């Protein structure tokens, strides 16, 4: 039952593994990354991070300020220590996600400053209510297995934005939630907020229900805040999501192989930083290699090269037994049209076929905006993508020789119990229009975004999120109020 909830959140089992790279090519990219780390080095603008890595065995670059190089032996030792896959913990344990290298999940895009208004169809600045409603809708969508803050609450003071965003997500989903921290203080507050739900800091360490996000500034640079957020998160035992985002032709070589090698070097440097705190902290390999349109300087999405790079990133991540989180549904279209559908499906299908552990993008629209309608449409795209990546069974039951013999020439299989037993072999979408053409014309044909809008509004009206219990609610409210007073007064 793809996407349904059991003792742990059920993803979909990968039925096969597409390889866009040979094993030798994966090894070549790995070797290139080691050479980048050993010769070119990586810049760390945090004195704390720089000192930690020096103590761990990194070497000062002879000419480049704040740049460290990493001996091959140090990198290879760090790779050996990487924990094999991981588990993400949710407010409701039945929504915990187990990454085993064989099961795939999907999650939302994050951080859009705009929202496509469902009533006007126009883009507007996103609000805290959008964070709340989008989270609630994603809680209802079975193919959205974990949740990022889809949009930015632009109506909230910047000083308390991480706190109010996390509170909105904690109250509107029981699924796994991605962390959002801008500095060490934000990490402290996130830990304090989640400890209200977990039953205290020690319990939170056993079931860390938040992670932290670290993204280098390509090429090969970690700024102060990103480095120190990762260190502080690891000190709480929180998993660290490493998100290198190089752009081929801009902040990385224009060639995919060169971009992948640089992306991998950036990711490995992050692993080594986290391991200075605790080598048992799980890291997620969230490679986000994209491409630049060299005619305009625009970062373009939804192109086949991005799908190839994402599929290749899966293979590289799995070489280290790491969770591979890559681009899924993406687009560079500017409206709901055929281009939108083709680009989003291709972007998700190739890495899913490669066996990605986690695929991103649900709910992203265009022009830095998110969309409620797109949340619903992407849920269906992923349902079909996962159905394709799951493959199908070939055994006595599914070969159905006895049934074929029983029905015989010129018979039909409609009344057979075998048909009823295996009716889910063929997925029928509740969104995509599969009506008989005559009936469709008679009843009326509507644009898919209109149908999706109605479904989104219905789910927002009817879906009930399991609330925090009274004690959790009281504690969380107190933490948020105290943070608001402190942070706003300080500003």
Major beta sheet summary: 7 strands, mixed
What's the multimeric state?
single chain
Radius of gyration: 23 Å
Any low-confidence stretches, pLDDT <50, length ≥5?
A: 1-6
Strand order of the largest sheet: 1-7-20-19-16-14-12
**DSSP summary, beta strand count:** 21
N- and C-termini, Cα separation: 50 Å
Mean pLDDT: 95
**Strand pairing plus helix content: what structural class?**
alpha/beta
Report helical residue fraction.
40-55%
Number of helices: 18
Shape: globular
Strand content: 5-15%
Features:
7-stranded mixed β-sheet; single chain; 4-stranded mixed β-sheet; alpha/beta
Quick synopsis:
The protein has 491 residues and is α/β, with parallel strands linked by helices. The chain has 18 helices and 21 strands.
């Amino acid at each position: 039952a793809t996407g349904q909830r059991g003792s742990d959140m059920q993803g979909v089992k990968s039925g096969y593994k597409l390889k866009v790279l040979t094993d030798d090519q994966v090894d070549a990219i790995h070797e290139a990354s080691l050479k980048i780390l050993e010769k070119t080095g990586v810049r760390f603008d945090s004195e704390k991070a720089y000192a930690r890595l020096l103590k761990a065995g990194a070497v000062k670059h002879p000419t480049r300020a704040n740049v460290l190089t990493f001996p091959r032996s140090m990198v290879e030792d760090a790779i050996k220590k990487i924990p094999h896959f991981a588990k993400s913990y949710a407010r409701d344990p039945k929504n915990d996600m187990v990454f085993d290298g064989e099961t795939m999940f999907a999650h939302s895009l994050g951080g859009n400053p705009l929202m496509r208004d469902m009533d006007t169809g126009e883009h507007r600045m996103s609000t805290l209510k959008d964070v709340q409603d989008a989270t609630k809708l994603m809680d209802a969508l079975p193919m959205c297995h974990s949740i990022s803050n889809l949009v930015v609450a632009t109506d909230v003071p910047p000083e308390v934005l991480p706190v109010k965003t996390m509170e909105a997500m904690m109250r509107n989903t029981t699924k796994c939630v991605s962390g959002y921290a801008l500095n060490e203080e934000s990490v402290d507050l996130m830990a304090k907020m989640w400890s209200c739900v977990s039953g205290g800091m020690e319990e939170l360490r056993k079931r860390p229900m938040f992670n932290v996000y670290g993204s280098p500034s390509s090429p090969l640079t970690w700024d102060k805040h990103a480095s120190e957020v990762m260190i502080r998160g690891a000190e709480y035992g929180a998993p660290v999501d490493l998100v290198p985002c190089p752009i081929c032709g801009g902040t990385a070589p224009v060639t995919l192989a060169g971009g992948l090698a640089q992306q991998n070097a950036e990711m490995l440097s992050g692993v080594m930083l986290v391991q200075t705190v605790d080598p048992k902290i799980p890291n997620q390999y969230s490679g986000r290699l994209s491409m630049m349109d060299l005619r305009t300087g625009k970062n373009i999405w939804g192109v086949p090269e991005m799908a190839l790079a994402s599929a290749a990133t899966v293979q590289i991540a799995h070489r280290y037994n790491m969770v591979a989180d890559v681009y899924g549904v993406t687009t560079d279209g500017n409206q709901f049209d055929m281009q939108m559908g083709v680009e989003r499906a291709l972007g998700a299908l190739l890495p899913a076929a490669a066996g990605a552990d986690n695929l991103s993008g649900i709910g992203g629209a265009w022009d830095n905006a998110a969309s409620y309608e797109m949340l619903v449409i992407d849920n269906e795209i992923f349902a079909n993508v996962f159905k394709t990546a799951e493959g199908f069974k070939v055994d006595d039951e599914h070969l159905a020789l006895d049934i074929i013999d029983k029905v015989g020439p010129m018979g039909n299989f409609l009344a057979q119990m075998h048909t009823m037993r295996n009716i889910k072999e063929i997925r029928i979408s509740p969104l995509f229009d599969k009506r008989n053409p005559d009936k469709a014309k008679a009843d009326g044909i509507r644009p898919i975004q209109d149908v999706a809008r109605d479904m989104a509004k219905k789910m927002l009206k009817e879906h009930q999120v399991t609330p925090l219990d009274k004690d959790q609610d009281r504690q969380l409210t107190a933490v948020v109020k105290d943070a608001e007073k402190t942070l706003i007064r300080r500003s």
